Amino acid sequence: MSGRAAPLAGLLRRLDALARALLPAGLTLLLMLLAALPSGLPGLLPAVALPCLVFWSVFRPAALPPPVVFGLGLVQDLLTAAPPGTGVLVLLLAHGVAGRWRRLLARQRFLLVWLAFAGLAAGAAALGLGLQALLGWRLLPVAPAFWQALLAIGLYPGLAWLLTRLHEAMRRAEAMA
Amino acid sequence: MIRLSVPLHQALARLSLPALIAAGFGLMLLGKADALLAERARMALADALAPAWGALRQPVLALQGALGEAAGLLSLRTENARLREENERLRHWQDAAASLAAENALLRRQLGVLPEAAPGFVTARVVADGGGAYARAVLLSTGPGQPVRKGAVAMDARGLAGRVTEVGSRSARVVLLTDLNSRIPVLLEGSRARAMLVGTNTARPRLQYWPSGSEPQEGERVVTSAEANAFPAGLPVGLVRRTASGAAEVELFARLDRLDLLRLFDYRLPGILP
Protein backbone atom coordinates (compact mmCIF):
# COMPACT_ATOMS: atom_id res chain seq x y z
CA MET A 1 0.00 0.00 0.00
CA SER A 2 1.24 3.48 -0.75
CA GLY A 3 1.69 5.84 2.14
CA ARG A 4 0.59 8.89 0.21
CA ALA A 5 -2.77 10.36 0.90
CA ALA A 6 -4.94 8.73 -1.73
CA PRO A 7 -7.79 10.73 -3.15
CA LEU A 8 -11.06 10.01 -1.40
CA ALA A 9 -12.49 8.20 -4.42
CA GLY A 10 -9.47 5.87 -4.43
CA LEU A 11 -9.89 5.11 -0.75
CA LEU A 12 -13.58 4.43 -1.19
CA ARG A 13 -12.86 2.18 -4.13
CA ARG A 14 -10.30 0.30 -2.09
CA LEU A 15 -12.75 -0.08 0.81
CA ASP A 16 -15.37 -1.26 -1.66
CA ALA A 17 -13.00 -3.87 -3.08
CA LEU A 18 -12.07 -5.01 0.43
CA ALA A 19 -15.74 -5.36 1.36
CA ARG A 20 -16.34 -7.40 -1.78
CA ALA A 21 -13.38 -9.65 -1.00
CA LEU A 22 -14.56 -10.25 2.57
CA LEU A 23 -18.24 -10.68 1.80
CA PRO A 24 -18.36 -14.37 0.78
CA ALA A 25 -16.45 -15.61 3.82
CA GLY A 26 -18.14 -13.14 6.15
CA LEU A 27 -21.63 -14.00 4.93
CA THR A 28 -20.93 -17.72 5.24
CA LEU A 29 -19.75 -17.20 8.81
CA LEU A 30 -22.79 -15.06 9.64
CA LEU A 31 -25.20 -17.65 8.21
CA MET A 32 -23.41 -20.36 10.22
CA LEU A 33 -23.83 -18.34 13.43
CA LEU A 34 -27.49 -17.74 12.63
CA ALA A 35 -27.97 -21.46 11.96
CA ALA A 36 -26.63 -22.15 15.46
CA LEU A 37 -29.56 -20.31 17.05
CA PRO A 38 -31.97 -22.75 18.68
CA SER A 39 -34.37 -23.77 15.93
CA GLY A 40 -35.40 -27.31 16.80
CA LEU A 41 -33.65 -28.56 13.65
CA PRO A 42 -30.56 -30.52 14.66
CA GLY A 43 -27.59 -30.36 12.32
CA LEU A 44 -28.65 -27.14 10.61
CA LEU A 45 -25.23 -25.49 10.85
CA PRO A 46 -23.24 -27.90 8.64
CA ALA A 47 -26.17 -28.01 6.23
CA VAL A 48 -25.91 -24.23 5.79
CA ALA A 49 -22.12 -24.12 5.62
CA LEU A 50 -21.75 -26.65 2.79
CA PRO A 51 -24.05 -24.98 0.20
CA CYS A 52 -22.42 -21.57 0.81
CA LEU A 53 -18.95 -23.02 0.50
CA VAL A 54 -19.69 -24.97 -2.67
CA PHE A 55 -21.45 -22.02 -4.29
CA TRP A 56 -18.51 -19.66 -3.74
CA SER A 57 -15.98 -22.34 -4.68
CA VAL A 58 -17.71 -22.79 -8.03
CA PHE A 59 -18.70 -19.24 -8.91
CA ARG A 60 -16.11 -17.08 -7.15
CA PRO A 61 -13.17 -19.30 -6.21
CA ALA A 62 -10.85 -16.42 -5.36
CA ALA A 63 -13.21 -15.34 -2.57
CA LEU A 64 -12.62 -18.43 -0.45
CA PRO A 65 -8.93 -19.37 -0.37
CA PRO A 66 -8.15 -22.71 1.37
CA PRO A 67 -6.98 -21.09 4.65
CA VAL A 68 -10.38 -19.39 5.00
CA VAL A 69 -12.10 -22.74 4.31
CA PHE A 70 -9.93 -24.25 7.05
CA GLY A 71 -11.07 -21.54 9.45
CA LEU A 72 -14.75 -22.03 8.58
CA GLY A 73 -14.36 -25.78 9.08
CA LEU A 74 -12.78 -25.21 12.47
CA VAL A 75 -15.62 -22.93 13.54
CA GLN A 76 -18.11 -25.57 12.39
CA ASP A 77 -16.34 -28.29 14.39
CA LEU A 78 -16.18 -26.18 17.53
CA LEU A 79 -19.81 -25.10 17.32
CA THR A 80 -21.22 -28.56 16.57
CA ALA A 81 -19.09 -30.42 19.14
CA ALA A 82 -17.76 -32.66 16.38
CA PRO A 83 -14.25 -34.10 16.80
CA PRO A 84 -12.02 -31.19 15.73
CA GLY A 85 -10.66 -31.66 12.22
CA THR A 86 -13.55 -33.64 10.75
CA GLY A 87 -15.49 -30.62 9.50
CA VAL A 88 -12.22 -29.01 8.37
CA LEU A 89 -11.40 -32.03 6.26
CA VAL A 90 -14.90 -32.36 4.80
CA LEU A 91 -15.09 -28.68 3.83
CA LEU A 92 -11.56 -28.63 2.38
CA LEU A 93 -12.23 -31.71 0.24
CA ALA A 94 -15.61 -30.33 -0.88
CA HIS A 95 -13.82 -27.09 -1.77
CA GLY A 96 -11.20 -29.05 -3.74
CA VAL A 97 -13.77 -31.12 -5.63
CA ALA A 98 -15.96 -28.10 -6.38
CA GLY A 99 -12.87 -26.27 -7.62
CA ARG A 100 -12.09 -29.18 -9.94
CA TRP A 101 -15.58 -29.18 -11.37
CA ARG A 102 -16.00 -25.44 -11.56
CA ARG A 103 -15.08 -24.98 -15.24
CA LEU A 104 -17.76 -27.54 -16.08
CA LEU A 105 -20.38 -26.39 -13.57
CA ALA A 106 -20.15 -22.62 -13.90
CA ARG A 107 -21.66 -22.79 -17.39
CA GLN A 108 -24.43 -25.31 -16.62
CA ARG A 109 -28.06 -24.71 -15.86
CA PHE A 110 -29.19 -24.54 -12.25
CA LEU A 111 -30.70 -28.03 -12.14
CA LEU A 112 -27.45 -29.69 -13.16
CA VAL A 113 -25.49 -27.68 -10.59
CA TRP A 114 -28.02 -28.72 -7.96
CA LEU A 115 -27.66 -32.36 -8.99
CA ALA A 116 -23.87 -32.10 -8.75
CA PHE A 117 -24.27 -30.45 -5.35
CA ALA A 118 -26.53 -33.31 -4.23
CA GLY A 119 -23.78 -35.79 -5.10
CA LEU A 120 -21.23 -33.67 -3.28
CA ALA A 121 -23.45 -33.31 -0.20
CA ALA A 122 -24.01 -37.08 -0.06
CA GLY A 123 -20.26 -37.63 -0.33
CA ALA A 124 -19.57 -35.03 2.37
CA ALA A 125 -22.12 -36.62 4.75
CA ALA A 126 -20.66 -40.08 4.14
CA LEU A 127 -17.13 -38.80 4.73
CA GLY A 128 -18.22 -37.01 7.92
CA LEU A 129 -19.91 -40.18 9.15
CA GLY A 130 -16.84 -42.28 8.34
CA LEU A 131 -14.42 -39.89 10.06
CA GLN A 132 -16.56 -39.58 13.20
CA ALA A 133 -17.01 -43.35 13.39
CA LEU A 134 -13.26 -43.85 12.94
CA LEU A 135 -12.32 -41.26 15.56
CA GLY A 136 -14.85 -42.55 18.08
CA TRP A 137 -14.03 -46.14 17.03
CA ARG A 138 -17.64 -47.30 17.00
CA LEU A 139 -20.50 -47.81 14.62
CA LEU A 140 -22.75 -44.80 14.19
CA PRO A 141 -26.32 -44.75 12.88
CA VAL A 142 -26.58 -43.72 9.23
CA ALA A 143 -29.85 -41.80 9.59
CA PRO A 144 -28.37 -38.51 10.93
CA ALA A 145 -25.83 -38.36 8.08
CA PHE A 146 -28.60 -39.02 5.57
CA TRP A 147 -30.75 -36.30 7.14
CA GLN A 148 -27.80 -33.95 7.10
CA ALA A 149 -27.23 -34.49 3.36
CA LEU A 150 -30.95 -34.10 2.65
CA LEU A 151 -31.11 -30.86 4.63
CA ALA A 152 -28.12 -29.42 2.75
CA ILE A 153 -29.62 -30.42 -0.61
CA GLY A 154 -32.95 -28.90 0.36
CA LEU A 155 -31.35 -25.64 1.51
CA TYR A 156 -29.20 -25.25 -1.62
CA PRO A 157 -31.76 -23.65 -3.97
CA GLY A 158 -32.74 -20.94 -1.49
CA LEU A 159 -29.17 -20.14 -0.53
CA ALA A 160 -28.01 -20.28 -4.16
CA TRP A 161 -30.76 -17.83 -5.16
CA LEU A 162 -29.61 -15.37 -2.50
CA LEU A 163 -25.92 -15.81 -3.27
CA THR A 164 -26.48 -15.54 -7.04
CA ARG A 165 -28.11 -12.13 -6.52
CA LEU A 166 -25.10 -11.03 -4.46
CA HIS A 167 -22.64 -12.47 -6.95
CA GLU A 168 -24.28 -10.63 -9.84
CA ALA A 169 -24.36 -7.37 -7.88
CA MET A 170 -20.67 -7.75 -7.13
CA ARG A 171 -19.92 -8.45 -10.79
CA ARG A 172 -21.77 -5.34 -11.83
CA ALA A 173 -19.81 -3.32 -9.29
CA GLU A 174 -16.57 -4.79 -10.58
CA ALA A 175 -17.48 -3.99 -14.17
CA MET A 176 -18.14 -0.38 -13.17
CA ALA A 177 -14.90 -0.03 -11.23
CA MET B 1 3.31 -7.46 2.14
CA ILE B 2 6.01 -9.51 0.40
CA ARG B 3 5.78 -9.52 -3.36
CA LEU B 4 6.31 -13.01 -4.76
CA SER B 5 7.10 -13.88 -8.33
CA VAL B 6 4.07 -15.13 -10.25
CA PRO B 7 5.23 -18.80 -10.67
CA LEU B 8 6.12 -19.06 -6.98
CA HIS B 9 2.78 -17.53 -6.02
CA GLN B 10 0.94 -20.03 -8.21
CA ALA B 11 2.95 -22.95 -6.82
CA LEU B 12 2.15 -21.86 -3.25
CA ALA B 13 -1.53 -21.49 -4.11
CA ARG B 14 -1.58 -25.00 -5.58
CA LEU B 15 0.22 -26.44 -2.55
CA SER B 16 -1.93 -24.76 0.08
CA LEU B 17 -4.94 -27.10 -0.30
CA PRO B 18 -2.97 -30.37 0.18
CA ALA B 19 -0.99 -28.78 3.02
CA LEU B 20 -4.18 -27.67 4.76
CA ILE B 21 -5.76 -31.10 4.28
CA ALA B 22 -2.71 -32.58 5.99
CA ALA B 23 -3.15 -29.98 8.74
CA GLY B 24 -6.76 -31.11 9.07
CA PHE B 25 -5.56 -34.67 9.70
CA GLY B 26 -3.07 -33.30 12.22
CA LEU B 27 -5.89 -31.43 13.95
CA MET B 28 -7.89 -34.66 14.17
CA LEU B 29 -4.98 -36.45 15.85
CA LEU B 30 -4.40 -33.49 18.18
CA GLY B 31 -8.08 -33.43 19.15
CA LYS B 32 -7.95 -37.17 19.81
CA ALA B 33 -4.78 -36.89 21.89
CA ASP B 34 -5.81 -33.86 23.94
CA ALA B 35 -9.56 -33.74 24.48
CA LEU B 36 -9.16 -30.93 27.03
CA LEU B 37 -7.67 -28.63 24.41
CA ALA B 38 -10.70 -29.09 22.16
CA GLU B 39 -13.00 -28.46 25.11
CA ARG B 40 -11.19 -25.25 26.00
CA ALA B 41 -11.29 -24.03 22.41
CA ARG B 42 -15.02 -24.80 22.23
CA MET B 43 -15.80 -22.88 25.39
CA ALA B 44 -13.58 -19.94 24.40
CA LEU B 45 -15.52 -19.63 21.13
CA ALA B 46 -18.85 -20.06 22.93
CA ASP B 47 -17.89 -17.38 25.48
CA ALA B 48 -17.01 -15.00 22.67
CA LEU B 49 -20.24 -15.64 20.78
CA ALA B 50 -22.71 -15.86 23.67
CA PRO B 51 -23.49 -12.09 23.81
CA ALA B 52 -23.98 -11.91 20.03
CA TRP B 53 -26.30 -14.92 20.10
CA GLY B 54 -28.19 -13.36 22.98
CA ALA B 55 -28.78 -10.26 20.85
CA LEU B 56 -29.65 -12.22 17.68
CA ARG B 57 -32.12 -14.31 19.62
CA GLN B 58 -34.60 -11.48 20.14
CA PRO B 59 -35.70 -10.94 16.50
CA VAL B 60 -35.75 -14.69 15.84
CA LEU B 61 -37.88 -15.23 18.93
CA ALA B 62 -40.26 -12.46 17.84
CA LEU B 63 -40.65 -14.10 14.43
CA GLN B 64 -41.24 -17.52 15.93
CA GLY B 65 -43.76 -16.00 18.33
CA ALA B 66 -45.67 -14.36 15.47
CA LEU B 67 -45.78 -17.62 13.51
CA GLY B 68 -46.94 -19.53 16.58
CA GLU B 69 -49.63 -16.92 17.18
CA ALA B 70 -50.91 -17.27 13.63
CA ALA B 71 -51.03 -21.06 13.92
CA GLY B 72 -52.76 -20.72 17.29
CA LEU B 73 -55.52 -18.53 15.83
CA LEU B 74 -56.37 -21.21 13.30
CA SER B 75 -56.80 -23.95 15.90
CA LEU B 76 -58.46 -21.78 18.53
CA ARG B 77 -61.71 -23.75 18.79
CA THR B 78 -60.23 -27.25 19.01
CA GLU B 79 -57.52 -26.02 21.38
CA ASN B 80 -60.17 -24.47 23.62
CA ALA B 81 -62.16 -27.70 23.77
CA ARG B 82 -59.02 -29.70 24.52
CA LEU B 83 -57.99 -27.33 27.32
CA ARG B 84 -61.48 -27.42 28.88
CA GLU B 85 -61.35 -31.20 28.97
CA GLU B 86 -57.79 -31.20 30.32
CA ASN B 87 -58.70 -28.63 32.97
CA GLU B 88 -61.52 -30.89 34.15
CA ARG B 89 -59.09 -33.80 34.47
CA LEU B 90 -56.42 -31.73 36.21
CA ARG B 91 -58.90 -30.41 38.76
CA HIS B 92 -59.49 -33.98 39.82
CA TRP B 93 -55.73 -34.58 40.06
CA GLN B 94 -55.28 -31.40 42.06
CA ASP B 95 -57.64 -32.75 44.72
CA ALA B 96 -55.80 -36.07 44.72
CA ALA B 97 -52.42 -34.35 44.99
CA ALA B 98 -53.54 -32.15 47.88
CA SER B 99 -54.81 -35.09 49.91
CA LEU B 100 -51.72 -37.15 49.08
CA ALA B 101 -49.42 -34.28 50.10
CA ALA B 102 -51.21 -34.01 53.44
CA GLU B 103 -50.99 -37.77 53.97
CA ASN B 104 -47.32 -37.75 52.96
CA ALA B 105 -46.51 -34.97 55.44
CA LEU B 106 -48.29 -36.88 58.19
CA LEU B 107 -46.39 -40.11 57.44
CA ARG B 108 -43.08 -38.29 57.28
CA ARG B 109 -43.75 -36.76 60.68
CA GLN B 110 -44.63 -40.15 62.15
CA LEU B 111 -41.58 -41.87 60.65
CA GLY B 112 -39.13 -39.07 61.47
CA VAL B 113 -37.78 -38.93 57.88
CA LEU B 114 -34.68 -36.75 57.61
CA PRO B 115 -35.59 -33.78 55.39
CA GLU B 116 -33.44 -33.43 52.25
CA ALA B 117 -31.74 -30.10 51.78
CA ALA B 118 -33.30 -28.07 49.01
CA PRO B 119 -30.68 -27.66 46.30
CA GLY B 120 -29.65 -24.24 45.07
CA PHE B 121 -30.27 -23.50 41.44
CA VAL B 122 -29.65 -20.84 38.82
CA THR B 123 -31.76 -20.25 35.73
CA ALA B 124 -30.02 -19.71 32.41
CA ARG B 125 -31.22 -18.99 28.91
CA VAL B 126 -30.53 -21.26 25.95
CA VAL B 127 -28.81 -19.09 23.35
CA ALA B 128 -27.59 -21.60 20.77
CA ASP B 129 -27.88 -25.15 19.59
CA GLY B 130 -24.53 -26.73 20.44
CA GLY B 131 -25.12 -30.01 18.65
CA GLY B 132 -24.39 -31.37 15.22
CA ALA B 133 -25.23 -34.49 13.27
CA TYR B 134 -23.94 -36.74 16.05
CA ALA B 135 -24.32 -34.58 19.12
CA ARG B 136 -27.31 -33.18 20.96
CA ALA B 137 -26.39 -30.25 23.16
CA VAL B 138 -27.36 -26.66 23.88
CA LEU B 139 -25.31 -23.65 24.88
CA LEU B 140 -26.48 -21.51 27.78
CA SER B 141 -25.56 -17.94 28.47
CA THR B 142 -24.65 -17.64 32.15
CA GLY B 143 -23.98 -14.41 33.95
CA PRO B 144 -20.69 -13.72 35.71
CA GLY B 145 -22.50 -13.84 39.07
CA GLN B 146 -23.93 -17.29 38.40
CA PRO B 147 -21.56 -19.99 39.53
CA VAL B 148 -22.28 -23.02 37.32
CA ARG B 149 -20.41 -26.21 38.05
CA LYS B 150 -19.61 -29.11 35.76
CA GLY B 151 -22.05 -31.92 36.46
CA ALA B 152 -24.94 -29.65 37.41
CA VAL B 153 -28.34 -31.13 36.53
CA ALA B 154 -30.32 -29.22 33.89
CA MET B 155 -34.12 -29.30 34.03
CA ASP B 156 -36.75 -27.46 32.04
CA ALA B 157 -40.18 -26.69 33.47
CA ARG B 158 -41.36 -30.28 33.01
CA GLY B 159 -38.46 -32.61 33.65
CA LEU B 160 -34.83 -33.60 33.28
CA ALA B 161 -33.10 -32.25 30.16
CA GLY B 162 -29.42 -33.10 30.60
CA ARG B 163 -26.20 -32.30 32.38
CA VAL B 164 -23.65 -29.50 32.25
CA THR B 165 -20.46 -30.90 30.75
CA GLU B 166 -18.40 -27.82 29.91
CA VAL B 167 -18.31 -24.46 31.65
CA GLY B 168 -16.86 -21.23 30.31
CA SER B 169 -16.73 -17.79 31.86
CA ARG B 170 -20.13 -16.70 30.50
CA SER B 171 -21.49 -19.79 28.79
CA ALA B 172 -22.07 -23.43 29.61
CA ARG B 173 -22.74 -26.49 27.50
CA VAL B 174 -25.49 -28.95 28.41
CA VAL B 175 -25.41 -32.41 26.84
CA LEU B 176 -29.03 -33.50 26.39
CA LEU B 177 -30.50 -36.89 27.29
CA THR B 178 -30.87 -37.65 23.58
CA ASP B 179 -27.13 -37.35 22.86
CA LEU B 180 -25.42 -40.54 21.68
CA ASN B 181 -23.03 -40.39 24.63
CA SER B 182 -25.68 -39.82 27.30
CA ARG B 183 -26.09 -42.62 29.87
CA ILE B 184 -28.41 -41.93 32.80
CA PRO B 185 -29.24 -44.34 35.63
CA VAL B 186 -33.02 -44.38 36.01
CA LEU B 187 -35.71 -46.09 38.04
CA LEU B 188 -38.96 -47.53 36.66
CA GLU B 189 -41.46 -46.15 39.10
CA GLY B 190 -43.97 -49.01 38.89
CA SER B 191 -41.62 -51.93 39.53
CA ARG B 192 -38.84 -49.97 41.31
CA ALA B 193 -36.46 -51.72 38.88
CA ARG B 194 -33.29 -49.91 37.83
CA ALA B 195 -32.27 -49.40 34.21
CA MET B 196 -30.04 -47.25 32.02
CA LEU B 197 -31.40 -44.52 29.76
CA VAL B 198 -29.26 -44.48 26.64
CA GLY B 199 -29.33 -41.60 24.13
CA THR B 200 -29.78 -42.62 20.51
CA ASN B 201 -29.65 -39.26 18.73
CA THR B 202 -33.42 -39.48 18.17
CA ALA B 203 -36.16 -37.74 20.16
CA ARG B 204 -36.70 -40.79 22.39
CA PRO B 205 -33.79 -42.32 24.29
CA ARG B 206 -33.84 -46.05 24.85
CA LEU B 207 -34.07 -48.11 28.07
CA GLN B 208 -31.46 -50.82 28.56
CA TYR B 209 -30.22 -53.26 31.22
CA TRP B 210 -33.34 -53.67 33.31
CA PRO B 211 -33.35 -56.74 35.57
CA SER B 212 -35.01 -59.81 34.05
CA GLY B 213 -38.62 -60.18 35.12
CA SER B 214 -39.33 -56.47 35.43
CA GLU B 215 -40.09 -55.46 31.87
CA PRO B 216 -40.82 -51.73 31.46
CA GLN B 217 -44.56 -51.34 31.00
CA GLU B 218 -46.11 -49.00 28.45
CA GLY B 219 -46.89 -45.67 30.10
CA GLU B 220 -44.82 -46.37 33.23
CA ARG B 221 -43.17 -43.30 34.76
CA VAL B 222 -39.38 -43.12 34.66
CA VAL B 223 -37.42 -41.08 37.24
CA THR B 224 -33.71 -40.69 37.94
CA SER B 225 -31.97 -43.08 40.29
CA ALA B 226 -29.25 -42.13 42.75
CA GLU B 227 -27.13 -45.03 41.52
CA ALA B 228 -23.52 -44.00 40.76
CA ASN B 229 -24.08 -40.79 42.70
CA ALA B 230 -24.46 -38.72 39.56
CA PHE B 231 -28.10 -37.68 40.03
CA PRO B 232 -30.42 -37.30 43.01
CA ALA B 233 -33.21 -39.86 43.09
CA GLY B 234 -36.68 -39.09 41.82
CA LEU B 235 -36.26 -36.35 39.20
CA PRO B 236 -38.99 -36.79 36.56
CA VAL B 237 -37.64 -38.06 33.23
CA GLY B 238 -40.49 -39.41 31.09
CA LEU B 239 -42.93 -42.20 30.25
CA VAL B 240 -42.12 -45.64 28.84
CA ARG B 241 -43.23 -46.20 25.24
CA ARG B 242 -42.86 -49.57 23.52
CA THR B 243 -42.03 -49.39 19.82
CA ALA B 244 -43.61 -51.68 17.24
CA SER B 245 -40.53 -53.90 17.42
CA GLY B 246 -40.84 -54.17 21.21
CA ALA B 247 -37.92 -51.93 22.21
CA ALA B 248 -38.51 -49.80 25.30
CA GLU B 249 -38.11 -46.08 24.69
CA VAL B 250 -38.82 -43.10 26.90
CA GLU B 251 -40.99 -40.19 25.86
CA LEU B 252 -39.31 -37.35 27.73
CA PHE B 253 -41.25 -34.84 29.80
CA ALA B 254 -38.74 -32.12 28.89
CA ARG B 255 -39.41 -30.51 25.53
CA LEU B 256 -35.90 -30.74 24.16
CA ASP B 257 -36.81 -29.36 20.75
CA ARG B 258 -37.94 -26.04 22.19
CA LEU B 259 -35.75 -25.36 25.18
CA ASP B 260 -35.74 -21.77 26.32
CA LEU B 261 -34.89 -21.50 30.00
CA LEU B 262 -33.09 -24.23 31.93
CA ARG B 263 -32.74 -24.52 35.67
CA LEU B 264 -29.31 -25.76 36.69
CA PHE B 265 -29.40 -27.57 40.03
CA ASP B 266 -26.13 -28.08 41.81
CA TYR B 267 -26.50 -31.14 44.05
CA ARG B 268 -22.73 -31.30 44.64
CA LEU B 269 -22.72 -35.00 43.87
CA PRO B 270 -19.28 -36.46 43.43
CA GLY B 271 -20.37 -38.99 40.74
CA ILE B 272 -18.32 -39.67 37.64
CA LEU B 273 -18.11 -36.50 35.57
CA PRO B 274 -18.30 -36.86 31.81
TrEMBL record, chain B:
Domain Rod shape-determining protein MreC beta-barrel core residue range list: 126-262
Pfam family, one: MreC
One cellular-component annotation, GO: plasma membrane
Coiled coil regions in record: 76-103
Alphabetical list of InterPro entries matching this protein: Cell/Rod_1, Cell/Rod_MreC_2, MreC, MreC_beta-barrel_core
GO BP annotation list: regulation of cell shape
Transmembrane intervals: 12-31
Keyword vocabulary terms for this entry: Cell shape, Coiled coil, Membrane, Transmembrane, Transmembrane helix
The organism's place on the tree of life at top rank: Bacteria
Functional note: Involved in formation and maintenance of cell shape.
Family: Belongs to the MreC family.
NCBIfam families documented for this protein: PRK13922.12-1 (NF010512)
Record protein name field: Cell shape-determining protein MreC
